[in-house]
Amino acid sequence: MRCLWLEGGALSSRPDVPEPRPAAGEALLRMRLAGVCATDLELRRGYLPFTGVPGHEVVATVEAAPSAPEWEGRRVVPEINAPCGACPECRAGLPRHCRSRSVLGIAGRDGAFAELLAVPVASLHPLPEGLADEAAVFAEPLAAALEVLEQVHVTPSTRAVVVGAGRLGQLVAQVLALTGCSLAVVARHERQRALLRSRGIEAVEEQDLAPRAADLVVEATGHPSGFDLARRLLRPRGTLVLKSTYAGSLEVDLSALVVDEITLVGSRCGPFGPALSLLERGLVDPTGLVEARYSLDAGLAAFEHATRPGALKVLLRP
Amino acid sequence: MRCLWLEGGALSSRPDVPEPRPAAGEALLRMRLAGVCATDLELRRGYLPFTGVPGHEVVATVEAAPSAPEWEGRRVVPEINAPCGACPECRAGLPRHCRSRSVLGIAGRDGAFAELLAVPVASLHPLPEGLADEAAVFAEPLAAALEVLEQVHVTPSTRAVVVGAGRLGQLVAQVLALTGCSLAVVARHERQRALLRSRGIEAVEEQDLAPRAADLVVEATGHPSGFDLARRLLRPRGTLVLKSTYAGSLEVDLSALVVDEITLVGSRCGPFGPALSLLERGLVDPTGLVEARYSLDAGLAAFEHATRPGALKVLLRP
């Protein structure tokens, strides 16, 4: 089959990789639409030593599901994490933190930038008829955005700031806006600002914001540089949610976190069910983020497009 | 008056510093007993550029209080932070985070390693008769230990670990033990371990603990090295409370915090009222921590004693 292939940090387009063979309890999916995410770009920079097919944001049709044939032909979104169900984390109700999980297109499992992919049947979410592929393909990053609300109690009185208005920042902003909180989003690019304004969300530049005034700052820039800005905007006793993952570590003044009694909350993957529900009801509309569509054969060009400064969502079709 | 004096990171014993003159709303206190804290030692290492009399853990007698003469002659403990009452933080109910606060013996206000000190009357806590000076002198660090419970909901089912069994770690351990949680304290020195065991608290060495198993880890070593150990012991989605302040910053893998969805909670000063209440009722007994008593004139020797590895509380008398 045709796919993109990552090896030693180099991405290539391959015409003849063997088709995946679903293991027991797995389904074979035919990719309909897949999204390029910052993590895919970071994988290429060496964030994790993954070899295989990248891609974890995907809408697909179930091609075969030997153990659960009722799924065949259905349009689905698979979870990004495939847990073991038996380790201490799984038993503690934290399957997304399973210590032997595979992660679609990131660790231990080939991903979605391919004609076909194999995932556990248990990871499938069926899609309602009215939900378009171009909305449903955002289920995974929207779930990740919703994780902020799973972890932090955001109230209508919360003064919140999102730093970074790229692919993930836009979704975090839409989700926070639903709480009725006071919300400003630091956006560097006019296209990002226009998109936020079209959803009734205040787009600002860094210098528009008072320092040490936000109750909650979500750092979603995808870059190490976002941390310092987020920190400056936060009030004492405030909460800083970290959404960015990137290669390398950062010098952090932990004593200053103690003095200001800051709470840092690392935030990764979230719940798919509520994400699909919000998409279906139109309470979150990510389709304005779609910036370009490429065929799988033009996958390398799609990656280059996604790395442009300010680029929003780039999609891949089979 | 006689006092210890910190200037340019050098500590000296001075016989003839002018007595403090209380400003409007302030009281003049005569020191009865004062404790040496890790922060005092860090100040000498350049953690903050303070010049003046250090010392912020103190029991005193009110010598004069022109605006509130009913306080005169009373035995008191003063708060460490003196807030302005007018800034956004004070108005938001966060006086300990007042942006123009003075901090006794740390920033903007001479401290307690002196015969006399001046503090706002509003910062005074009267001491009940039955509470000995050697217990009450722990009010400030015990309040700081209680701040963990103000910030984190510790339940009887929480698996908690305290890393560091020095002055602050012992108090944090005693406070956590009151919740009925499962508790282990990483202690390097036999004296520390014996003291914990005498309170019915499990003292362990680093290698006794399973990695990634604790729900809550409190880092109270006072050293940058404590962070890595605390991080290793913490389960995914766990909470790491930072109590240490020291000069300099630390390389932190923030992406790993995101992947494991760790919450870091900076924790500084806490509530004096509950601290005094626990001391009065004997639910916390810090007196076993007292390792040595020095006169103010021997203050330099007291500091040297306090820097010994594993040293617990060193007290200063007038």
Description:
Two copies of one chain form a homodimer. By secondary structure, chain A is of the alpha/beta class. Chain A is 25% helix and 30% strand. Chain A is built from ten helices and 19 strands. Chain A has helices spanning 38-44, 88-91, 133-136, 139-151, 167-177, 190-198, 226-233, 254-259, 272-280, 299-306; strands at 3-7, 10-14, 26-36, 57-64, 75-78, 81-82, 102-104, 108-109, 116-120, 124-126, 159-163, 182-186, 202-204, 214-219, 234-242, 250-252, 263-266, 290-295, 313-317. In chain A, strands 3, 4, 5, 9, 10, 18 and 19 form a seven-stranded mixed β-sheet that branches. A six-stranded parallel β-sheet of chain A has the order 13-12-11-14-15-17, sandwiched between helices. In chain A, a hairpin with a 2-residue loop joins strand 1 (3-7) and strand 2 (10-14). The relative contact order of chain A is 0.16. At the A-B interface, strand 15, strand 16, helix 8 and strand 17 of A face strand 15, strand 16, helix 8 and strand 17 of B.
